[in-house]
Design brief:
This protein has 408 residues and is of the alpha/beta class. 45% of the residues lie in helices and 13% in strands. A six-stranded parallel beta sheet has the order 3-2-1-4-5-6, sandwiched between helices. A six-stranded parallel beta sheet has the order 9-8-7-10-11-12, with helices on both faces. Helix 4 crosses helix 5, helix 9 packs across helix 14 and helix 12 packs across helix 15. The chain is globular. It starts with a strand and ends with a helix. The relative contact order is 0.12.
């Protein structure tokens, strides 16, 4: 009997969000008779530590120095630009510090881990540039690498170099596949589009959302609209606040919830959002929930779910989860949301980056409970056909087997 192949998964995301959630669904459902998984994460915490109950797990720190935080402090300083070349020198020093104190220790530790684990294949769970350590380890060990591409990237020379490293790509949508082919010259024969998969059985549309509403003092009369996602600027929280300001006097008992955790890098962003809420008189309308553990209850406690990413999102977990639960969903008319949602049939699309269009869509749903129920049911039927974790795992394992056969 052939021993199971060893797959090393490497997750270097900014925080605990859709990418790591989908990875956990994949690892939990991987056929253990064929594959033995090990998950390496650059970050740690209670949610990451839960992975150890599902697979081999190791935390390898990838940020000993907070280079992003230093950029946040230095970038606004204007006097640096008054001295020719100083801004360039500063950026170069930060980049080299990142290489020396963050990238190099992570790379060495990961190389040792992969060698000890005797990995047969490395699966990088994020785009190639932030996962270049994993891809370079694959090159050194002469084993195939899969890169799970989840976003749209600029076609810079550095990005093109990073995209030359993986053996194969598994973008999460046709939109991402087209982008990496046109912008980064990735050959079509190195691409297999695989939609993210979730354990849909665990997303019960009958989950009671009452406790969630009570937790945030929402009454039966309140019309609760929730923007779900990590507090990252491109997730659209500012547009959501703009829409709240436009709607607060038009929709009685309107409550607009910002649902999601805060990555360490984005604490200043959260502070800015809360200052806006105070300065614009939105305290009685906007609610910040922070990270929510029981997401099915949160979705079902909301009257409408919103995804408002200002940059095209590959295939947001919010879209999948919300549709699977049969919730009324509003999403931007670009990226994965536009690919997955059928306007006026499985949800409402609004003009990306437009708070006026978002406010109009929220008002549209507010006017008709029948429309909310009808579109929500149609969304669930579509999700059950498209995003089952079994389909996702079967397709991903087929990619692994193909690469492993060809690597012999």
């Amino acid at each position: 009997m052939t021993a199971p192949k060893r797959i090393l998964y490497v997750e270097n995301g900014i925080g605990y969000g859709g990418a790591i959630i989908c990875l956990r669904h994949l690892v939990r459902n991987l056929d253990r008779s064929q594959f033995t998984p090990m998950v390496v994460t650059g970050r740690t915490g209670p949610q990451y530590e839960e992975i150890a109950q599902e697979a081999l797990w190791k935390h390898i720190p990838d940020r000993h120095i907070d280079i992003v935080g230093l950029h946040h402090k230095l970038d606004p300083i204007k006097w640096i630009d008054s001295i020719p070349g100083l801004r360039f020198i500063t950026n170069q020093l930060l980049a080299r510090a990142d290489d020396l104190f963050n990238f190099l220790p992570f790379f060495i530790n990961l190389l040792w881990t992969a060698w000890r684990f005797k990995a047969d294949l490395i699966h990088a769970n994020n785009e190639p540039l932030c996962n270049r350590a994993a891809l370079l380890v694959g090159k050194l060990l002469k084993i195939p690498t899969v890169c799970h591409v989840r976003g749209n990237q600029d076609g810079t020379s550095l990005m093109k170099w990073a995209y030359s490293l993986p053996t194969h790509f598994t973008p999460v949508s046709q939109w991402v596949s087209s982008a990496i082919q046109s912008k980064l010259n990735v050959p079509e024969n190195k691409i297999t589009v695989i939609y993210d998969g979730l354990e849909l059985d665990g997303l019960d549309p009958d989950t009671d959302g009452t406790l969630f509403r009570k937790q945030y003092n929402l009454t039966d009369k309140d019309f609760a609209v929730g923007l779900v996602g990590l507090l990252i600027p491109w997730k659209g929280q500012e547009i959501f606040l703009d829409a709240a300001r436009a709607l607060k006097d038009k929709i009685p008992n309107l409550k607009m919830l910002i649902v999601g955790g805060i990555p360490d890098d984005c604490v200043p962003y959260e502070k800015m959002l809360k200052e806006r809420v105070k300065n614009e008189g939105l305290e009685s309308t906007i609610i910040f929930t922070g990270h929510v553990t029981d997401m099915p209850a949160a979705y079902n406690g909301l009257d409408v779910v919103v995804s408002a990413s200002t940059s095209p999102e590959p295939l947001g977990t919010v879209v999948i989860e919300s549709m699977a639960l049969g919730r009324p969903l509003i999403g931007p008319d670009h990226g994965g949301a536009a690919e997955m949602m059928d306007h006026e049939k499985t949800g409402l699309l609004f003009k990306a980056k437009s708070s006026e269009s978002l406010a109009e869509a929220i008002g549209n749903f507010h006017q008709s409970k029948e429309k909310r129920e009808q579109l929500g049911q149609a969304a669930r039927e579509h999700a059950l056909r498209t995003f089952a974790v079994e389909t996702h795992v079967t397709q991903m394992q087929a990619v692994y087997n193909s690469l492993l056969v060809n690597s012999k």
